[in-house]
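User: My collaborator sent over this chain with a note saying "see what the structure looks like." That's all I know about it. Can you take a look?
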Amino acid sequence: MFELLGVPPQVLLGQLLLGLINGSFYAVLSLGLAVIFGLLNIINFAHGALYMAGAFVAWMLLNYLGIGYWPALFVAPLIVGVFGVVIERTMLSRLYHLDHLYGLLLTFGLALIIQGLFRNYYGISGLPYQIPAVLSGGQNLGFMFLPNYRAWVVVASVLVCFATWFAIEKTRLGAYLRAATENPTLVGAFGVNVPLMVMLTYGFGVALAGFAGVLAAPIYSVNPTMGEQLIIVVFAVVVIGGMGSIMGAIVTGYMLGIVEGLTRVFYPEGSAVVIFVIMAIVLMIKPEGLFGRTA
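Assistant: Without extra context I'll predict from the sequence alone. Here is the result:
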């Protein structure tokens, strides 16, 4: 069947797998954006910079403190999450009653500041981050050689995405979070500390970006611009899935990663824009997104 398409099966299957790996990053990052927008109504343009910060924190833990990959996988997102809590308490909490544009402008400015600080100190050349020894090597799948670490990225992203979806959609805490977005005064009347919940939600959303940064560190060079272009793609993923839709962010992230991989096989010139073309089509047909709810 593959030969009928004029494409060697090794090339097609290899690009599908690479697309799934890219989709893993799209899913985790867009999930963090969806959590923040869906529950806080904040368009967090600093998400790409915090993804980059997660990678740098993992690099610094290794090179300055000797803390390896596995502890960093938990410590780095925690540090980024705490930083997010500080941002929410000192800046974003003042904007909740204003138009969404103010939050977007503030987080965009924060992204420039964070990126500029890392660029001034570390330059723009990439810093290597070693793959953990237990995940070195790979598996021969017949049609391609799959590095163990990239397979781990897919598994880790699926686990994190499922756990986040389950916590928000199927638990009492998630019900409180969703209720607080609709009527915070009523939820507060039941004794729920809504400001604390909002603060922790934002911290968790940016911690997901930090987690993705740690996953990316051994694959891509750790540099201040690593989140610059990726965040534009991730915003497109969120728009296609539906702003604030948890399931939409997850499914669309993986789906568009695979579509991007297939485009590299059949029309390589269009691989850089295919996601944005899909976004334009979706916005014309279903403006609320594939999984979004009509206002």
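A starting point for your reply to your collaborator: The CA atoms of residues 129 and 218 lie 5 Å apart.
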